[in-house]
Amino acid sequence: MKDTAFVTGATGFVGASLVRNLLAKGLRVRALVRPDAEMRNIAGLDVEIVQGDILNETALRSGCAGARLVFHLAADYRLWVRDSKDMFAANVQGTVNVLEAAGVAGAERIVHCSSVAAIRPPRGRVPAAEDSKYAGPHEPIGPYKKSKYLAELAALDLAAKGLPVVVVNPSTPVGPMDVKPTPTGKVIVDFLNGRMPSYVETGLNLVDVRDVAEGHWLAAAKGRPGERYILGAENMTLGDILGTVSELSGLPKPAFKTPYAVAYLVGMIDTARCRVFGGDPIAPLDAVKMARHHMWYDAAKARRELGFTPGPVRLALADAVAWFRANGYAPAGQSGPGS
What we know:
The protein is of the alpha/beta class. It has a domain at about 5-180 and about 205-235 and about 295-315: Rossmann fold (3-Layer(aba) Sandwich). Helix content is about 40%, strand content about 15%. It is built from eleven helices and 13 strands. The protein has helices at about 15-25, 55-65, 85-105, 140-160, 185-190, 210-220, 240-250, 260-275, 285-290, 300-305, 315-325, and strands at about 5-10, 30-35, 45-50, 70, 110-115, 165-170, 170-175, 200, 205-210, 230, 235, 255, 295. The chain has a seven-stranded parallel beta sheet, with helices on both faces. Strands 7, 9, 11 and 13 form a four-stranded mixed beta sheet that branches. The chain has a two-stranded parallel ribbon with strand order 8-12. Helix 1 (about 15-25) links the parallel strand 1 and strand 2. Helix 7 (about 240-250) crosses helix 11. The longest helix is centred in the N-terminal third of the chain and has 21 residues, at about 85-105. The N and C termini lie far apart (about 40 Å).
């Protein structure tokens, strides 16, 4: 009989890639899906659906029942929210609910998808590793990072109490099937639509979303409970990322870099406007604050202990560009050289 894996966040960007990964490995996959979820990413796949969310304990008990592996990926991922109460409920209490339900059900391994948002970013441009820790919840910038930090602390606390929880910290996934899209996917979409006249220079660690999915599997197979593993690939400046997308798409790279002080002022005014009049800011202030750091990370531990071997980010960016164009997010265009 096939082993069963229960996946929360299965319709999301990383979750859908993980579902495909697990099915290819011969596992039976059970997915927690909200009634209003966008199903395009897993449509047509041989997946058992459990309706509910991570605050619904009945649904979680049903999903975890008989599952040898549990992968918790569901999260509220937004860089700006008007009211952060729901985000903290989903990301922190939801995490506790999933991991405790998996423990009661007797799962042999529980993989919690955290984020590099829970790892203190480097000072300067030396990549941070798993031992880089925030001094407390006052340090992470914005509700999203704070909630992911607190969720990871809760996961590690449950691991210390005996649950077989392994934590993975993906960096910035890119690739196909980014249906929402994620904040990074939106940068690519805006670029392809000519909506990026300038940019604020920063640094990111990019990784193919399919490699992140494989990293989850490797964490379940080889990870040590109570440990966290960065799943990242290449550290790049935003300018270099946009240059690569320019080459792949055949579109010009923005020539102007917005000074940080100007971006901060715009972000402050734009965010205040949305708090008063509604809508979402084009330049959330928290996102501008994050851009001040080069968020570069070192995945050596995952390579060493898990056998994590991510592929070239250029290929992931090429697939992202092609997918966005093929699915109507951006006009079709002439691909650049080397795509």
